[in-house]
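User: Hi! I'm working on a homework problem where we have to compare a predicted structure to a textbook description. Could you give me the structure for the chain below?
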Amino acid sequence: MKKLFSCALILVVAACASSKAKDDADDIVPPAQTIAAAQNASTESRIEALQTSMTELLERLDVMNARLAKLEAGTPAPAQATIAVSAPAPTPSPIASAVTAPAPLPTPHVMPTNPLAGAQLADTYRNALMLVGRGKMDDARRTFQKVFDDDPTGDLADNALFWIGETYFAAGNYAEATKYYKRVTVEFSEQNKAPDALFKIALAFEKTSDLGMAKKTLDEVIQRYPYSSAAASAKQELKRIRY
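Assistant: Happy to help. Predicted structure tokens:
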């Protein structure tokens, strides 16, 4: 009888211990939804970082291509863009008006004198790129404008103007986008964003069905910046338009 009672007591104790271990395990393991949310947040963060890094790498590549073009040519790039314009029409397109509007004289490129301010400006610019990656174009536009206003002749000035144009292009406002692209090609014609800006002017003409001006502008990209990635894109775009 004592043996039977002892066995029963052991079984009860074992069952209690197993139940407690299960409860403890339930407390330790996080719910599946929490894990999924954490994974999604981590993935989005990595994607944004990769997008920003890719943009910065492409911009550095454009800088190297521009330097190579200068070395090959042996002469400085033209000081001012000369975009061909079709004969005046009774009702000119808003894109053509933006391109042919009188442009200010080129601004001399000056290096920033305050290294700390330059570092802060670079952080602001990077934050603006991240806003673009998240699709927050209005916020990005304001941030890029701040970058330009804080140092309108610095290393990031042409980039800031170009990306302001990109935010308008993404919104379908091609006339406003072209105004900023045009400023890059005129005020910063020798900087790394000038080829991209001229190429995007051609795409803006395409978007408004002005294929004649689009082709002329694509040809100009190839002639003025033959070693740039924009020139390679222009060649592909010309083939697509013609065929």
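For your comparison, note the following. Residues 32-73 form the longest helix (42 residues). The chain has a mean pLDDT of 75. Good luck with the assignment!
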